[in-house]
Succinylglutamate desuccinylase (Shewanella ulleungensis), 1476 residues
Amino acid sequence: MSQVKQSNIQVGELATGQALTIPLYDFIGSNASAPSVYIQANVHGAEVQGNAVIYQLMTLLEGYDVLGNIKLAPLANPLGINQKSGEFTLGRFDPITGVNWNREYFDHKVDLTAWYAKHQHLSNAALFDAYREMLVESCQARLTLPFGITTGHRLAVSLQSMAHQADIVLDLHTGPKSCKHLYCPEYDIDAARFFSIPYTLVIPNSFGGAMDEAAFCPWWQLTDFAAQQGRDFEVPVSAFTLELASQERIDLADALDDANGILAYLSHRGVVREKVEPANMARFGCYLKDYKKFHAPKAGLIEYCAAVGQPLIAGEPLVNILRMDLYGTDDAHQVISLPMDCVPILHFASASVHQGTELYKVMTNVFTL
Amino acid sequence: MSQVKQSNIQVGELATGQALTIPLYDFIGSNASAPSVYIQANVHGAEVQGNAVIYQLMTLLEGYDVLGNIKLAPLANPLGINQKSGEFTLGRFDPITGVNWNREYFDHKVDLTAWYAKHQHLSNAALFDAYREMLVESCQARLTLPFGITTGHRLAVSLQSMAHQADIVLDLHTGPKSCKHLYCPEYDIDAARFFSIPYTLVIPNSFGGAMDEAAFCPWWQLTDFAAQQGRDFEVPVSAFTLELASQERIDLADALDDANGILAYLSHRGVVREKVEPANMARFGCYLKDYKKFHAPKAGLIEYCAAVGQPLIAGEPLVNILRMDLYGTDDAHQVISLPMDCVPILHFASASVHQGTELYKVMTNVFTL
Amino acid sequence: MSQVKQSNIQVGELATGQALTIPLYDFIGSNASAPSVYIQANVHGAEVQGNAVIYQLMTLLEGYDVLGNIKLAPLANPLGINQKSGEFTLGRFDPITGVNWNREYFDHKVDLTAWYAKHQHLSNAALFDAYREMLVESCQARLTLPFGITTGHRLAVSLQSMAHQADIVLDLHTGPKSCKHLYCPEYDIDAARFFSIPYTLVIPNSFGGAMDEAAFCPWWQLTDFAAQQGRDFEVPVSAFTLELASQERIDLADALDDANGILAYLSHRGVVREKVEPANMARFGCYLKDYKKFHAPKAGLIEYCAAVGQPLIAGEPLVNILRMDLYGTDDAHQVISLPMDCVPILHFASASVHQGTELYKVMTNVFTL
Amino acid sequence: MSQVKQSNIQVGELATGQALTIPLYDFIGSNASAPSVYIQANVHGAEVQGNAVIYQLMTLLEGYDVLGNIKLAPLANPLGINQKSGEFTLGRFDPITGVNWNREYFDHKVDLTAWYAKHQHLSNAALFDAYREMLVESCQARLTLPFGITTGHRLAVSLQSMAHQADIVLDLHTGPKSCKHLYCPEYDIDAARFFSIPYTLVIPNSFGGAMDEAAFCPWWQLTDFAAQQGRDFEVPVSAFTLELASQERIDLADALDDANGILAYLSHRGVVREKVEPANMARFGCYLKDYKKFHAPKAGLIEYCAAVGQPLIAGEPLVNILRMDLYGTDDAHQVISLPMDCVPILHFASASVHQGTELYKVMTNVFTL
């Protein structure tokens, strides 16, 4: 039986002076050599289901023997979560600047030549400790820059600073209308077999601004650089983005499934003493280069025909586009299909779209994991 | 076989100078004494399904013998439909003023004592013609007021001007996450047995700003006034709001069901020559006074447990409220239920809410129609 | 020398669970028979200058002998103030429902016949105490209704509950781009000579949803009803809305002027012992029926030619409308003027407008107060 | 006397089916060897003053002998201009995706090694023609990609396609609350002496996503590459962003000043036959590395003390921050100043800010041009 400890972190301040705070929950592991874990949810304001998964995971963990430290940060973007616009949460980007909350993380751009030269004499463990300390300190330094940093970067760097202290980082998101899928870096593809997630997107080991990349990239770069110097070790940090179905949805039963999937991965990594088996299910992969965005070729009303998570044969209807201004012409009702087999992973949330709206993201060249 | 004629009406002008126009479709009836019809859809920007219903209804009507004139106005609020905010349509109110697009209609406040005195010598048919002409002219006069009128009122009065020319007015809406339901004035309750809609809200014969009320209220008032003078006739105009399930959804198959329901009502009223039977289904009613709004008693993440359109027994779970800031306390997870039997008709669209958000609307004291 | 005491009131809860609180400042008067005062600011989120006026007023009051209790509530709408949309504050209406934050107050609709019958035996002082108690209790009762109330109504009724406890209520607002003006009920027109505000709008003694009306209407109704029963007394409560120039503007020097104007009124009413003279300035009035809204007759780019607070002769340019889509035609550049003399009081904040946008509000038939 | 020809370009389609179009105005030059010009305005929806400058410039040009072709595109972002949020224009980013409209241009990433190898035999004139044709065709190709492109990229590439056909590209913007300033690439610094703009930001010759960079970067890269191959020519294309004071403001008189400044530059470049002298005024420069953003160190109400365009001595007040929740403490009113001399160029538009909001941009190390 393990116990959780609650605290808070302040990540900003609203115009009225109210602190923007995030609740933190810590399980203190009983084994200092077990990997440590950081899990956050709801950085995009409408993507709430990760909170329910954290809720179920904490409930489960209380019944397990927790070996590694686990820090959980639900409701990780209070400003984004509380920003409504009509009946929905406008939580994908900073309402002032438009910047995507998940593209605000800090790119360390470590000068590895210099850093490695100074630290290569260290043992692996000491090398990793020094590197980790450097990453955390770089984040802390940004929070006190004399001319300040943006609201979104302050939030991101505050979160990143916690993430850098862990060996395993899980960022819980959802798509708009989406099936479950995992963002997994190429070097860590084996991990994809533990989560309760059918589809995995295999991404390159490079930085695009998101939390998972912010967490693993510096470590992949260190590993790669050391290898070039003839010193081989596994990438010491694992980081994933879990897309847990659709936004604006809380489903406690489904959250329990995903909590069990996460637990299976943590068990595999030795974070809990007990053996937890992954769900017995088919799992598929797709490379990022084969992940296609389909944009509305014209404006109109959209009937989304293709179910997310279900294979779609080339030529089968993806969407119907209805154009009420063109009734009586051939363009009043148009069926759109794709020229290749695919698995639709997510689609847009609204049923009327401007030309160019991203209607669907589909996986092509899907393979079994 | 009937044919439809397309035209457009301009209802405003955007800052860049582009005209705000609405496509209009007219079936010209073959029998001048058959009732005329006005049907509009999508006055609230996210409530798109009514367009699909109009699409299916026009397709059906082409195969029928249309006796009365039918005017159809899909996409009836171009500004509201095109106003996105994040991935959803912010179409419920004017983004500048906040005024609900469906509360902008003109309240004629006819001085019936004066008007009736001047026109009481007329036959019923001539009386109705004169009254209708007065209503249309009042609308037209507003469009040319010297200091102008608001954007929303211009749109509403333009639509209202068309509606006043019809004997039957249908305003096609949807709820947020909703089952189908009908707003029906008390005096016209028999009509509710024709549409393919299981739940009917019986509303008083008074004006609250919406299209249906704007269309029937002046006529109910005339009828009521004449009755006081000892002259009895049926209310000459019928007007209903149809709530066709959820917003941000196009479903062509379901739209066909509702088109058939509308056709059954029009057939009953003699607008088409053919006999169209209403769907064989259970239909229920509820008085407006028994239609209850349940507001979030506290903030949090919401799991909507009660299915819309399904009876809910007193004490059964309505929602789960999850409070991630309170994990470890009794308030972390709270089940909310209602003290009386009800039928949940609609619920809020977002899964995280501030205190006071309208979570559910439920019918109580439901009776069989 | 007087001292202020700080506290907070909770008026709601955000989705993340954070309390919505308003800071309260209380000066405790030394004379129980002096009138009590309630002043709030910033109920509309972008209208911040009232906070600066409260700041300056509190600084001044510390140097005066305060006889009546004074409660000050700056930042009175934390949700509205913190809701940004782009670089501006979207603070005029609830972002979810569109309802104007200043139209959410409770209309008591007191059954005066019944209430007065029960309380007419009381002395004036006791009658007023009983009435006030009833008003406050009605507000408190709303906050605990079993099915809850909306977010905006909860805020409004919480504020109203404090306002009802005072004899003088000041609600500090601003216009969009505006000169200073005062909303003053007809029965209290003499008060307009004390504030540092040149233009006064004389409003009827009826309820339209705003705070000033919510505060004075029940008292005016009581006074009116008692007079009909042959019992005469002055309306016991005064309430005003002060429009302190433009939104999105803090000007501490100007705020001191308005703080002094408020102090002059409070001095006149005996709330402070010291005599404070009103500013020596011209003051003008206009009846609400002569306060005209001018809507954009067509869309386009707007140059606002008429300065707010400066008389404008009939026929002089009000705005230039530029239509870049019509360059080369007579409609490319159009000068708009009004057919009567007026004083422009405020104009719209944006320089490009849809047809129907409220461009200017102007006073006509202006008279010297 | 020159004449202008009007046309339109379609750049997208709204959900209701309405075309998004931009009005285009063309002066056909009388001398084929004179440089051609492309000028656009209002890509950010609230930045309207550039339209007035185009209006005044066209009026002026009608009285000049125009030698080079001039294409003018006012109202260049119809979707952004028409998107209001409250009383302001939410025009800085796509309301769906949050992407800044001025970061959507296409980065050609020309493979210069390959392209130059194939074309180096051409004369300069022929080389430039071939390069220009390749740029335009690349843009056109994007507009017909099989899976489509985003709404914002479609707009940007449509504009870019027109810009690439010109030798001189001017993109007319404004700041939020701003003095006039020019973005000028290092290689073209002499041009800054012609516009009626006091402050010039000297930017590197690299691509960051904006129109000016999209227009000049490929040409600077070609010039640089050719120089490395021993072939020297001037960068054939000039492109600038003009920031014409504040957003949400039309001022026709001020627009005439800026039209004259643009005319002086065009005259200098031989686009009009007549000699037009630049305004006699002081002009200053600053390198991008010395252009500093100052972020709100804490939240609160902001009085902007430093006037834009006026030198500010180190230590003088930049802003006052008022914290009404902290009245009675030292933090209630805080004066913020900078540690170095600077010229404030622009400040934020709202007077209440979250922590981290970009309050001011200031030029440091300012030099005389």
Summary: Chain B has two domains: 4-281, 289-368.
